[in-house]
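User: Please predict the structure of the protein below. I'd like the answer in structure-token form so I can feed it into my own downstream comparison script.

Assistant: Understood. Taking the following sequence of 274 residues as input:
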Amino acid sequence: MAAETITGVKHPTIVRVRQSLGQAGGGRATAFLVEDAKMVSQALAAGAPLETVLYLDPVEQPEEQALLEAVRRAGAECQVVTRGVFFRVLDLGYETATRVLATVRAEPLPASRLGELTNEEACLLVGEGIQDPRNVGVLIRTADALGVRAAIFTADSADPYSRASVRSTTGSILRVPLVLAESLLDVLDNLRHRGVRIIGTSAHAATACWDADLSPPCALLLGNETTGLSPEAQAACDLLVTIPMQGEASSLNVTVAVGALLYEVARQARGATV
């Protein structure tokens, strides 16, 4: 167990935690929060760079004590804190049933290292201007479910390390490499030079997704929820596809579209008839 129960937000550990989360000190966030024992356990299993784990006092349940000891063996700092400190770090303005928090160092993959993840079986996901952090999170979760090698988001997308996004990933953010692209066109050009076909989506495309060759290596490029892909992004694609719809809806949510397309990629990669 921790040697003391932290009772104030001016404790050096709490000051450091809040600074790493961008809550204090005016600096840029360098870490993100994972909440509850299940996600902290996932972080351990994934070998994520855990920094500090905070437990709500008292730590009495055997499973809580076991997780605390496992985290300490992994080398992360563990502290027990009072209710006021705990929910100040959670920074919600209200209390939840959560009893354990952990800060994980945010380590987006440099775009220059995408080549390490790219081979003839690779599929990557690229989001341009995805505005809703919950959509960003579900895209990461879907990428994880379908074995996508990396999720790439443009700088004008919502922050994948925000609370809404992290919670929407249900832990997948701990496993899927993330790239935050300053220049989308440079990233696409880099991928194309590595033999990756760039497949964009558009409601106005002439080719249905199941009539197109979506076999890896490929990168699926999805646009903003309202406006779709920019003209520049469309021009950078090797192929534009659409998901045919039969009802009256004008479009699909970007996360639904990605799920449908990734399953078609998986189907084709397994040798099914297109």
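That's the full token string. The longest helix spans residues 254-269.
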